[in-house]
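Priority: medium. Attachment 1 of 2:
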């Protein structure tokens, strides 16, 4: 025998052992005695009316588990829905999920950046309004230019209106 044929034989033997292991679980059989005493075999569990003492053989995977049969469950209890075996996601689905996740992260990043800009603008407005309010309350003369370019100073009534407007800005932007 050549080394390559030995390797091939070893691979085939390993494959055969694996297939036998899989086939053993595929041939899982239930064995029970029915009401007439007849021994029955099936790959499905026995019907609900069969007592536990008449179940003669279970598949290996069922031996460790506690079997809950319909006779053990009250009639009012909801039966669990049979869930279909979920196949692993395909490559295209994984790529789509990754793309969606990246888009969500990008959107979250944009939202946080926008929130940061709004917070900076609010802080700047707060600073300006606070300085303006301080100047108004200290009695410093405040002047404005008209459309014609003339300088006009605020009188007491205009100053009071400006103080109220500036306080509203301070209360909304300086939180």
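Attachment 2 of 2:
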């Amino acid at each position: 025998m050549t080394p390559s044929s030995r390797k091939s034989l070893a691979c085939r033997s390993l494959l055969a052992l694996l297939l036998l292991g899989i086939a053993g679980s595929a041939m899982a059989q239930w064995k029970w005695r029915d009401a007439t005493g007849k021994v029955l075999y099936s790959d499905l569990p026995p019907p609900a009316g069969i007592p536990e003492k008449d179940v003669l053989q279970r598949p290996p995977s069922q031996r460790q588990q506690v079997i809950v049969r319909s006779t053990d469950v009250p009639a009012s209890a909801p039966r669990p829905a049979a869930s279909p075996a979920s196949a692993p996601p395909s490559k295209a689905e994984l790529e789509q999920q990754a793309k969606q996740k990246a888009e969500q992260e990008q959107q979250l990043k944009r939202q946080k950046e926008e929130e940061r800009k709004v917070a900076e603008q609010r802080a700047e407005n707060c600073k300006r309004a606070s300085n303006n309010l301080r100047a108004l309350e200290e009695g410093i003369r405040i002047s404005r230019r008209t459309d014609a370019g003339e300088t006009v100073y605020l009188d007491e009534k205009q100053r009071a209106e400006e103080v109220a407007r500036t306080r509203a800005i301070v209360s909304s932007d300086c939180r």
